[in-house]
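Re: that chain you flagged

S.,

Sorry for the slow reply, it's been a week of failed gels. I finally had a moment to sit down with the sequence you sent. For the record, here it is as I used it:
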Amino acid sequence: MRSQKYLIALWGAVMLYSLTSIFTGDIGLSAYRDLSRERDKQTLNIEALKEKHKALEGLRDALLYDSDTIAVYARDLGFGRDDETFIRIVGLEEKVKQPATAGEVVPIIRQDHIPDRTLRFIAFYTGMGIIVLLGIFDFLRRRS
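Prediction finished late last night. Pasting the structure tokens below so you have them in one place:
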């Protein structure tokens, strides 16, 4: 009967390790929640990239098949037809052209979770602490 109560220490260590691993470990619920948030951010980014892709495809098709679109872009670059005359007014600020971007990089945020090795360490020393406490109680009971 005496030795069976020391199994409480083993049980306590296993329960502590299991619960902390389930809730705060590398593959626990908090890690799953963080990965789910990252997945949602990446999904939104993919949707934005699809919309950007559609817009760029439309622009490409317009440049391939529409001469008016080509003429507008050529005039923006300073080109014109043979029968056109350009007058440049000095002193007016030129329009700053924004470079076209292919999309936005969404960085992955690494979440720090308690490593499994640390959880084992804590559980082992908790079990050892329970064994020491039970030993002290046995010693005091025998002494009195």
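What I noticed first: The chain has a mean pLDDT of 85.

Talk soon,
D.
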